[in-house]
Amino acid sequence: MGECPAVGNPLYLDHASTAPPLPEALEAFAKASVSAFGNPGSAHQAGAEAARVLERSRKELKTAFGAEDFKVVWTSSGTESNHLAIQGLAKKAPKGVRRILFGAAEHPSSRMAALALADQGFTVEELPVDGAGILQPETLEAALGEDVALVTLHWVNNELGTLNPIAQLAALTRHLAPRAFFHTDAVQAVGKRPETLDSLGVDSAAVAAHKIGGVRGCAALLLASRSAEPEPMFLGGGQEGGLRSGTENVMGAAAFAAAATVRRTHLGQDPRVYLGRRRMLVDQLRAAAPDMVVLGSEEEAEIVGSILTVAFPGTLAANLLHHMEAEGVQVGSGSACNTDSPKISPVLVAAGVPEDLAFAALRFSLGGMETDEDLARAASALEKARASLAV
Amino acid sequence: MTPFERVYLDHQATTPMDSRVLDAMEPWLRERHGNAASRSHVFGWEAGKAVEAARAVLAAGVGGRAREIVFTSGATESNNLALLGCARARKDKGMHLVSARTEHKSVLEPLEALEKEGFAITWLEVDGEGRLDPAHLKAALRPETILVSLMHANNEVGTLHPIREVGFLCKEHGVIFHCDAAQSFAKEPIDVEADGIDLLSASSHKIHGPKGLGFLWVRSRPQVSLEPLMFGGGHERGMRPGTLDVPGIVGMAKALEIAHEDREAEQDSIRKLRGALQALLIPAGGCTLNGPPTPRLAGNLNLSFEHVDGEALLASLEGIAASTGSACTSADLAPSHVLLAMGKSPAMARGSIRFSLGRGNTLAEIEWVAERVLEEVRRLRELSPLHKMATENS
User: Fold this and answer.
1) CB of A76 within 8 Å of any CB in chain B?
2) What is the pLDDT at residue A269?
3) Residue A87's closest chain B neighbor by CA?
4) Which of A182, A354, B101, B287 has CA atoms 20 to 30 A from the CA of B311?
């Protein structure tokens, strides 16, 4: 289907948009599609086998993400997980507890899920972030109170790669807003950060298979065992303990668990795998373009290694992308979800990135297995692209 | 007779993925793994084109336009989006809905949620075979009726509803018609234009496609507006956000293409096998067909055996995959809400067993299954005091 322009062996550096499935995930997917094709709700052998694979995947996912104190609710996307948590938990808030807090640099799916609560009698407040897109604890502290029903803050910003200090923010929330639920969108963080989910102190976390090399169409909401259950969004057969009706995507779950396990193993062997790759990429790019501006942060404590957003003053990102594509290097600009709209990414606006830099921003996002040659190739493609644009 | 190790007769619960479907998905899982929303690079463009091609195939499968397909995670989400989304978007026009108690739970539950939001619902009666009378629908429609939701084929007893007549009545009254076609899609002819459907739910895993995927077809002329269940990202014309499952979408379209290659012949052969199974089981005696002989979904055979508990029969049929009701609820032991709505007694409802036949089943399998069922029915009846009393009294 669809013809493919001639690009020999392209180098894909847009993993934060979607990552290619890992071989282990594909194998688990293909295997489950044959041996566990049954409906996990069926009482017979085919159903029981599917249910076994589904439950085993649940356990593996918890182990891989260090989420032993959580239960796994399978969903179809990070967007669905964010909605189930934000809308579903807010509806469980006690009477009179009506404030919803979200960060100005959240992914549109969290942001919109929070904003939609305004129609349901909630007061929804956007909290400002700093120049790196990080929500500072004092900003949250000033907004917290007994009347806060839910706080939603991502762990890793999808465009800038900066980290919110989630454990600290969750602890503050528990202390100053004891009735509030704390949800984190961990889609860009899990599999890339060594910390466990258990260490964060959150009520819920959204995770998605396709960002870590699983197969699309499967994601999960991890719910702390001590936390209340969200009001379900899809009603029907009562699967997933009534929290999410619909026949479970068994093969997607098997692939997700397999990918998560691989990521955990890699991180276990080398916790700095992403940070190391990112640093080398920065060095290579800077050598090719000394005027390059790193957006977000260069402090290792503040970033995830898998995402690097940089701006090349005076060069439109859209043009750079096409020239790099011609060199066989695929990178992103802004979040994939809104590349059709020519306006500046709201995340970059929230972080106060000047307009000229925002239009010149490229996002390199790594899979963690890039070789030194790959990174050198990216830098050389950038250099060529800029040179041809300068003519 | 040669015994089989396993025979799968539960195609209405889910179907094994066709190997040709997995083959079609492969390139999109491997070298062409782009995000369909990424316009900036070639992987993204390719994925976008593949999604549009699949959309066209699926839309043609129901007689609609490509842009009217909204991809979802399955028929449950489609039903929720259709009902909650349409009712909430149209409540200024009226707050009355019409449906039937024999619908799937993913229709019943959202309707009950809407009832709590203040909507009034008229539940149409069905007859002893699960059929509904269009005259009842006509009588139920009021000026404030905004939406009618009726399935095409019943998931438990296989009854086919007269959707064309339903659609006609809905058009006449300016009411939106939602049809849950999860069980009939790719099996029975569906034409959203001729059938007067405005919203149609379909699922991929019931047609040998991948799980975790379905669609809602949403009429665009005139546009049926829906209040989305989820927001953000702007995918699917604002009706349903989330990164598109490109390999899954390609797989679902392939599954439809395979089913439509020779749809009538395949359904005829499945219908013949179902007839054979039914005929072979008649000698058991005390065996009643639930649902009508016709019009009925080709693969569905739902039977009640007098003095035999359906669960006990299933449990004794080792290696044979069938069910007592819908898969999502088979864990709970309440009698089927569908059979109860058809006026069956709780005892008869508990005695029911659903065989759903599909692609790949053979006559040899059916003969073996029939023999096993007859054997087990005989054995269970010998153990049943009720059966003993009944035979002694006759």
Assistant:
1) yes
2) 93
3) B230
4) B101
